Protein 1
Amino acid sequence: MGELRHTKVLIAGFGASGRAAARYCARSGARVRVCDDAPTETFAEAVREFADWPVQYRFGATPVEWFTETDLVVASPGIPPAHTGLKAARDVGVPVISEMELALHEAPRPVIAVTGTNGKSTTTSLIGAICGAAGIPVAVGGNLGTPMCDLLTEAASARYWVIEVSSFQLEITPSIHPAIAVLLNVTPDHLDRYPNFQGYVEAKARLLAHLTPADALIWNAEDPVAACLASSCAAVPVPFWSTGTPKEICDREGYGACWNDGRVRAVIPSHMVHEWDWRRTALIGTHNRENMLAAGLAAAIAGAPATIIAGSAREFSGLPHRCRLVREWRGVRFFDDSKGTNVGAVVKSLQGFAEQVVLIAGGLDKGTGYSALLPVAREKVRCAVLLGQAREQMKAAMADVTETALAATMSEAVRMAAAHARPGDVVLLSPACASFDMYRNYAERGDDFIRCVMEL
């Protein structure tokens, strides 16, 4: 990539990662241009932030020459690879990279990278919490919410980057090479962007492309796609099992971790054996067992002691909008899982409850279908209250396995769910869809759900 001073850099997409990249490039003396397909009024506040730098802007339609007459394009992960400007840049040999790639180049550090369809943010945050408690300096960010270019000062003193990586980011972060890679699960998602599930799998597999026998790959042994990808990886395999004690871990000297009624036995590549007591934790459900096992293994390999790992995981309360209890009302518990934006996430959340569930779901369809939701819905879901653009499609898919009802607003959905629920039931917002038909993001949707529940 070379020295940025006097380099012509186009920042394509002016969201959080784009603004972080623009700040870093402008401070480094690059000649910065910014473009975004959204209208000018969207970025009034962001433009004021850059008033002291000679940054050029083009909002709305951007001439293709902006993409071809530059030295480097730093693209938002949200821009599809087939975007006319990005394709034109590649056609003339202009590198197209992510903000993450830029940061990794500028502050090389060993990386603990977490990817998967679900659980990335919880696992990444938990790794950071454990390492912090153990006195291991880390910089935590990436797709989690803090752009990596905003962490460059902190990263200079960190022993590890701990980063969440999405499939979109992996498409344009070609040099990523984790010392510790974590592959949580791979289930259908984002098929509105990828031509098929295999295309999505190939994007996830990019995290493993540069791994060597000096690196470690932590992977979910109970996820068939993760297991397939791990089988052809050169890194040291460190599998985990969340549903019981597999005989092969107990009978041989191998690496990995297994869950047995809240007690965990882990063997890490240094041949150190850890025992963690996680019988009482704030995180519920099989999916959180997976997150905890992956985080514990990553922190152990990074040098965290067993006592710190056990204690930190027990105390970790989770992240907002990820299967968190909102309140109990008339004997019914209401949970906010607005981050459950795909079918796989909803299945895991439902499996985490022994109670019957009134499910609130729906939003912007992601093209994956809902067939994988039906077996657990037949068993667990008393009623599905559906809203948003996908509600009719979800009703058609679910009508044969559970009662369904349609709502126009979140407030109506919460009132209908409360009316269907019986004492001892759970009302769960876990949408299986994106939020952009009704909300700016999943957090705004979750906040609206919480407000509506508290108004009951």
Protein 2
Amino acid sequence: MTRSSIRMAVVTAKLDVIRRMLAGISTLPLSSESEFLADPRMVAAGESFLRRALEALFDLGRHILAKGFGIPTSDYKAIVRSLLQQGVVEVVLANRMTDMAGYRNRMVHFYDEVTAEELYEILTEHLGDVEAAVAAIQVWMAENPEMVDEAWDG
């Protein structure tokens, strides 16, 4: 695959999806596990919001790798490994992102094994990992404006 430029329109669209999904999660009744679990619609909404946020995050990583480095990847864990190798993310964050990729895959392929209780835990204790990944990508882009088709101002 040949290298071109990271398209700001794609970056902006993916970041917008992530922000909207995180905002959706913030509307759920997460202050009480029993309240969250009492309504199956909340569990379904939480799962959908989280899955879509993770998919947008990894699609953003895929775009950066394809357009910025000419590296084609489709597997989410491979995306994380390549982002680490290219210096887009640091080791500690890459480890957390690998966990996120694994959880997204469980939600899609092993959905019957994902419990509402573990989803609640992730929604209440681990959303900061998604935000940290977004922040790291934004910092990397600000430090590498020559790889982006438009100036990146965060």
